[in-house]
Structures are given as C-alpha cells and as structure tokens.
UniProtKB/TrEMBL annotation:
Lineage of the organism: Bacteria, Bacillati, Actinomycetota, Actinomycetes, Pseudonocardiales
Keyword Nucleotide-binding carried by entry: no
Keyword entries, A-Z: DNA-binding, Transcription, Transcription regulation
DNA-binding region boundaries: 36-55
GO molecular function, one term: DNA-binding transcription factor activity
Sequence ranges assigned to domain HTH tetR-type in this UniProt record: 14-73
A Pfam short name: TetR_N
Designated name of the protein: TetR family transcriptional regulator
Entry annotated with the keyword Lipid metabolism: no
Cross-referenced SUPFAM superfamilies: Homeodomain-like, Tetracyclin repressor-like, C-terminal domain
InterPro entries in UniProt: Homeodomain-like_sf, HTH-type_TetR-like_transc_reg, HTH_TetR, Tet_transcr_reg_TetR-rel_C_sf
C-alpha cells in the first residue's frame, strides 16, 4: 500500500507524457515543429512546466515525436508487408493508413533541423535506416511482381507521403478526408505498372531527398 502514491505518480507522469506527444504531433502536423510550446501544453491539458519536465527543450520534444512516429510507422509498414497478399496491397495499405509515416517524412524533408537531429541521435537514426530499408523492400517486391512501375524509387514514395501529410486548406473536416482519399487514389493509380507517360529524370532515392 505504501507504494501506491508513487505508482500513481509514475502513471500520471506517463499519461502526461503521452498526452504531450499526441498534442505535439497534432500541432507539428498543422504548424510544423516551430509550434509554440505553450500551445502544445495547453492542448495536452498540462502546464508549460510539465512539458519542460518531460522535454528539456524543443529539440528534445522533436526527437521524442520523431522517435515515437518512426517506431509506430515501422511497425505498421512491417505488418503491412507481412500480412498483405501482395506488395502492391501492402503499399496501398501503407499509403492510406500510415499517418505516423506521413508526418515523419514531412518533418524530415521539410525541416532540415529535424533531419539533423534524427541523424545525430542513435535511436532515431537506427529507426530511420530501418524505415528506409523496409520501404525499399516494398518497392522491390512490388516491382518484381509487376504491379509497381519500374521508373519510381523509394524517394518518390517519400515525396508522396510528405505531400499527403500537409493539411488541406478546407475547413470542413469530412470534406478534407474525402479530398485526401481521392488524392491518394489518384496517386496510387499513377504508380501502377504501365500507367501514364515516362517520368522525367531518374527514380528518386532517399539520399536524393535528404531522408
């Protein structure tokens, strides 16, 4: 019984951290990593002091969000590749469902400072490399089975994920979801083997886009 208050405090701290991460993800998706710390704390229902007890500075918060996103996205992508009947179906599932991956790629591509943090820190760098490897595997398998056009690369997919991660300037949430679903379907059709005209330049790699 004597350990109960301490255990409750630890549970409260974990809940606060989870709420801060969720709020930071939502703000980063809309405003980028420059979102005010006070607004993130307010959205999480905690004080700015609580935010800084968990994350010493903005860099620590960005690192935590990116680490959590990449960890979840990697699990989602591996599950899609293992569970779907084809690599194409895995790609469709990933492109439609992985909000975590979309935000991670957007942060890495659009904000060089985030990329530098990820490359510098061992945990996030490891997840970044693992994520690139599994996306490479999706591309290789889909092209080998003849469903994905051969003139696209993993970097091209990353750019598509980044574009889909940007919030649409549509106030009505349901219409924004509808528009995003249509855009995703159009992008997928453009990726099918035999679709469309020849693409300019070479297939993009992760190195080409700094991912």
């Amino acid at each position: 019984m004597g350990d109960e208050p301490e255990g409750r405090l630890r549970a409260d701290a974990r809940r606060n951290r989870d709420r801060l991460l969720a709020a930071a993800k939502a703000w980063f998706a809309t405003h980028g990593p420059e979102a005010p710390a006070e607004e993130i704390a307010r959205a999480a229902g905690v004080s700015p002091g609580t935010l800084y007890r968990h994350f010493a500075d903005r860099e620590a918060l960005i690192q935590a969000v990116t680490l959590d996103n990449l960890d979840n996205a990697l699990a989602e992508t591996r599950a899609a590749l293992a569970e779907e009947s084809s690599a194409w179906n895995a790609l469709v599932r990933i492109l439609n469902q992985s909000q975590e991956l979309r935000l991670s790629i957007r942060l890495l591509m659009a904000y060089p400072a985030v990329g530098e943090i990820v490359k510098r820190e061992r945990d996030t760098a490891h997840l970044r490399h693992a994520m690139i490897e599994v996306l490479d595997e999706v591309v290789r398998r889909a092209q080998a089975e003849g469903t994905l056009r051969t003139d696209v690369g993993t970097g091209d997919l990353a750019v598509m994920f980044s574009l889909l991660a940007h919030p649409l300037p549509i106030m009505h949430t349901e219409m924004a979801r509808h528009a995003t679903a249509r855009c995703t379907a159009l992008l997928l059709e453009s990726l099918r083997a035999g679709a469309g005209a020849h693409l300019p330049g070479h297939p993009l790699t992760p190195a080409d886009i700094g991912a």
